[in-house]
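Support request, please re-run this one:
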Amino acid sequence: MLYLILISLTDDVSALNVFRYLTTRTGGAVLTALFFIFVFGPRIIALLKVKQGRGQPIRSDGPQRHILEKQGTPTMGGLMILSGVFVATFLWADLSNLYVWAVLFVTLGFGAIGFYDDFLKVTRSTTKGFSGKARLVAEFVIAGIAVACFMWIGEKPLSSSLAVPFFKDVLIPFGSLFIIVGVLVIVSAGNAVNITDGLDGLAIVPVMIAAASFGLIVYLVGNAVFSEYLQLHFVKGSGELAVICGALVGAGLGFLWFNAPPAMIFMGDTGSLALGGALGAIAVAVKHELVLGIIGGLFVLETVSVIVQVVSFKMTGKRVFAMAPLHHHFEQKGWKEPTIVIRFWIIAFVLAIIGLSTLKLR
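Re-run finished. Output below.
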């Protein structure tokens, strides 16, 4: 919105041409989302405390210290994050770009699912939300609409193929079946971030690292000159998603201010599902689905730990980990929460570097 207004004034004020640059608007999105949360965050937290009373219900089968230390902390902090993201995006993005609307659709849709889940947990004072099957169906429908949109916007056969990292010309064509691949990527990303969100600050920093990484990727993939030089698949119009990535980073920084140990608020499913879904949608849009699995490798590890734990217990009656997801395993082993969180941040950063290396190693 602000972008279109500023561009319309460039004939009279030539200095405003600086806002035509994607880098300028991405930086504006970072600062806008950060400033928004700094200003309105305390008010949102105060309101959620009043509305929720006892705060987020704590799992009785989780680490016992959580019941003592985290009881009463409000949840649904994702509302704070999403507000910052949407305000920044609406101000700085080119709203005529369909990629922007498709990613926002997934973000809002997954956020709404998470909000309803959080709402049921808080109002019923239970750790169980609504039916897992119903939740997955809703996620698949939302993701399916977005992937169909990406396939319609993009150029064939690229839009219906899976690009393989480290190889410049390798595409796995799926045709119309690519919608299944794209949906699985988006839904898996949303739920992987949701699983990771279990300690103060644990999920939000890896999300910011992934968003910053994809901000660079979409900028390069959406630029014909840079994509040709790096031998990347050019996706026309996708560069505008850098603004959303910037908004995610800014909103994440603002949220971390309040989510740093000891957390004043939890993001809840409202935030984790929405953020994971947004990352998944961006990856599908710019044909870096497999790279997301590398950059977001921490989320993959957390999810795999849960799968391994469940399968092992059902097949052998034995547990591989002291507790799943993986961060709870280390808690049970005696690691302090800040130690786990910071070490997981380091892992996320290293994996992001490895993922970004695929841009050049071809």
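The radius of gyration is 20 Å. The chain has one domain: 29-357.
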